[in-house]
């Protein structure tokens, strides 16, 4: 069963939850946010809009014992499209996004791929928008680079 609770975000973008601190984002500093704890996710809701989704460090048995916990209402509406970024695949068939290395495959080395970032997974597409693979997301870091730039080989 999902529960909701409210917390105030600290000056550095943290909220306290069950003796732990969660990074919800420094743009929310000083604001009151609603945290919705679902199965294995925490949805951060600010001003009635879904701000971020994080993996939950709180097990389902202890959710109801959290300070200020109440039965959750309807889930927040999702108003945004998934974020899409481009990355150049390394000579070893890897790319990195949100601090996570993704193995795409050696046949795609040197090519630029598009990565669609979901809450709990990455979808990787080639230049023809054909899906190459789907990889589980293990980090909570935000995107800092959106565009990939190919490098020219050094001439000998």
CATH topology of the largest domain: OB fold (Dihydrolipoamide Acetyltransferase, E2P)
Please count the helical segments: 0
Derived from helix and strand composition plus strand pairing, the structural class reads mainly beta
CATH class of the largest domain: Mainly Beta
Low-pLDDT parts are: none
**How many domains, in number, for the residues?**
2
Fold and architecture overview:
By secondary structure, the chain is mainly beta. It has two domains: 3-71, OB fold (Dihydrolipoamide Acetyltransferase, E2P) (Beta Barrel); 83-136, no CATH class. Helix content is 0%, strand content 42%. The protein contains no helices and 13 strands. The strands form four sheets. Strands 6-5-4-1-7 form a five-stranded antiparallel sheet, with no helix packed on it. The chain has a four-stranded antiparallel sheet with strand order 8-11-12-13, with no helix packed on it.
Summarize the structure in short.
By secondary structure, this protein is mainly beta. It has no helices and 13 strands.
Task: Describe the secondary structure blueprint for this structure.
Blueprint: E1 3-8, E2 14-17, E3 20-23, E4 32-37, E5 41-46, E6 49-55, E7 70-71, E8 83-88, E9 94-97, E10 100-103, E11 112-117, E12 121-125, E13 131-136
Antiparallel strand pairs: 1-4, 1-7, 2-3, 4-5, 5-6, 8-11, 9-10, 11-12, 12-13
Give structural attributes.
four-stranded antiparallel sheet, 2 domains, elongated, five-stranded antiparallel sheet, mainly beta, 156 residues, 42% strand, OB fold (Dihydrolipoamide Acetyltransferase, E2P), 13 strands
């Amino acid at each position: 069963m999902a529960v909701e609770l409210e917390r105030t975000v600290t000056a550095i973008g943290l909220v306290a939850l069950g003796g732990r601190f969660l990074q919800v984002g420094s743009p929310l500093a000083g604001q009151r946010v609603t945290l919705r704890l679902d199965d294995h996710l925490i949805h951060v809701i600010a001003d009635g809009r879904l701000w971020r989704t994080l993996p939950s460090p709180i097990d389902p048995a202890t959710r109801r014992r959290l300070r200020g916990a109440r039965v959750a209402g309807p889930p927040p509406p999702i108003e945004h499209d998934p974020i899409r970024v481009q990355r150049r695949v390394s000579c070893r068939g890897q790319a990195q996004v949100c601090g996570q290395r993704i193995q795409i495959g050696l046949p795609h080395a040197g090519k630029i791929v598009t990565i669609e970032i979901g809450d709990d997974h990455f979808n990787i597409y080639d230049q023809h928008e054909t899906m190459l693979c789907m990889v589980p997301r293990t980090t909570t870091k935000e995107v800092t680079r959106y565009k990939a730039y190919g490098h020219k080989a050094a001439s000998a």
